[in-house]
Amino acid sequence: MNLHVAMVARTLNVRHLRGTGRYVQEILRNARAADHIRWTAYGHDPALPFRVPEPLLGRAEVFEFRGDRFHLWEQIGLPMRLRQSGAQILHCAENTAPIWQPIPTIVTIHDTVPWEEDTRGLDRFYLHDIQKIALRRCAHVITISESSRRDIVARWPFLADRLTVISHGIADEFFSEERAPLPAALAQALGDAPYLVYLGGAQPRKRFDWAMELLARCGRDDLHLVGCGFGAGTAPLDRIPEVLRGRVHFAPFLEDCELVSLYRGAQAAVYPTLYEGFGFPAVEAQAAGTPVLFSPVSSLVDLVGPLAWTNEPQDFDAWLASLKEVLALPAAVRAERAEAGMRWARCFSWRSSVEKHFQVYREVLARA
Fold first, then answer.
1. Which keywords describe this protein according to UniProt (predicted)?
2. Within this chain, do residues 192 and 153 fall inside the same structural domain, yes or no?
């Protein structure tokens, strides 16, 4: 018998996918007919693309609800749809959930960063007050790392006995031999220059300035830096030092196949984030055979593989020494470590992750 799961998929109803959207997309596309799972994936904006995988084992439905900016789509519109959908389980995969839960509800909390930011007014009330009530009513909570689990239990102790850790996987494109060309403008800007890749975007905790300082002080005037994760209008062009003009570039939003090519062509990936619920780039770089520099903080302590160079977050001299070591690696040593890194990264399987999600679904339904 099929299990009918309603999936909140607003992070697929966008122009460009980000981390949470990739998580939702991989759950949907890694389901197989033999799993006996049928989906209804819900989006909220008919004006934007709905990036559900094709074919989808089920159906996609986009509907508007007045008052979306006041969260009424989630709190009223979605529960009303669920009453008529025939779904048996609701999976809210994007950190928040409705208070009104007409069917057993599971929520994925990726990390507690939204609750730690300095939000004000309605947004703060919604996260700290409304969501506390919603979480108390949820049948189960999924999170993506032991680090996030500890943070969630510290904030909401009442969730400790209904909280499961399920790690993310890595997209199949990272293990493919096929290569996609880089976007033309980026390829033209780089030419044949060697480059580093920075992952993280404009958020202060991601530390783009740290990556630029590494570039400036590494002693390689021929080396460039490609910044990824910056949305439209967020690239910090005014912060690029004069000495680095012409050597710092910003990638557009990349499809997975393009991102793999960018990683594979890089001398190293630089990921100086101070906190992550999971930390895709730490695994993705190693899956692509590229050395990656990061600090073993929060969930990243579990992502130290054969191609990782790790240092304390504030020890710039150690970071710089690691970068110089990576840049000076003999080709044979680099190739050997790249092979080990790619083997290690295969442990992060989306199929395995999805099977664990299905197990949670069935346990929740059995309890209900």
1. Transferase
2. no
